[in-house]
Amino acid sequence: VIYDEIEGLGAPQPAILPLQLSSASPRDYELLVDTLERQFGRLDGILHNAGILGERTELENYPVDVWDDVMAVNLRAPFVMTQELMPLLKKSEHASVVFASSGVGRETRERWGAYSVSKIAIEAVSQLFAKENTSPNIRFNCINPGATRTAMRAKAYLDEDPKTLPTPEHIMPAYLYLMGDDSLHMNGQSIDAQD
Question: Which residues of 59-76 are buried (b: 16+ CB within 10 A; e: fewer)?
Fold first, then answer.
């Protein structure tokens, strides 16, 4: 959907570059940066929307291997990718970096384990990038999609009827707002997509 939106606006055709976030190496990120620089010369934005749920269990019983996977995808990958792509973001007139958060990224809830910890941490990562960044053309914000009809939501809430929830397409305007020039005044903020 966002690919089509970008093309519909007449912007350059987006690049799709597969990257295994749970195990990406420094070399993988170097190749990503090299490819983007060669094809585009700059980077106007990053949407860190990939995430995994992990297990809904008490921390006392949380599997360490699952913890590591959740942290690799939900926290380490957005941090490292943003860090590596900063030189390309600095070349943009107005760059936006958006991190996906969650309601459990603002307030802990029982049995949300690594997912909650990763989302609390990603809120902090976004705020730190915003406060420490010296390039006025780059902004960093978080977005909480809220209850949305996704496979992850269905896995987390087995008794919930997914048809009662908005689709990802329904909340896309909030994402486009943060990625676009209408939000140039926002930096270090965390918004709810459904407010």
Answer: eeebeeebbebbbbbbbb
Residues 6+ apart with CB under 8 A from 86: 138
Residue 10 CA from chain centroid, whole number: 24
Domain boundaries, the chain: 18-192
Query: Do 74 and 105 form a contact (C-beta atoms < 8 A)?
Result: no
- Superfamily assignment of 18-192 in CATH? NAD(P)-binding Rossmann-like Domain (3.40.50.720)
Average pLDDT, the chain: 95
**Confidence (pTM):** 0.92
User: How does pLDDT run across 119-136, given as a tens digit for each residue?
Assistant: 999 999 999 999 999 999
135 phi and psi angles, rounded to 5 deg: -95, 110
User: Torsion over CA of 77, 117, 58 and 192, rounded to 10 degrees?
Assistant: -100
**Residue type for position 141:** N
Residues serving a catalytic function are 115
Range list of β-strands (E), 7-164: 45-48, 95-100, 138-144
Q: How far apart are CA 186 and CA 193, in angstroms?
A: 15
CB within 8 A of 146, min separation 6: which ones?
103, 166, 171, 192, 193, 194
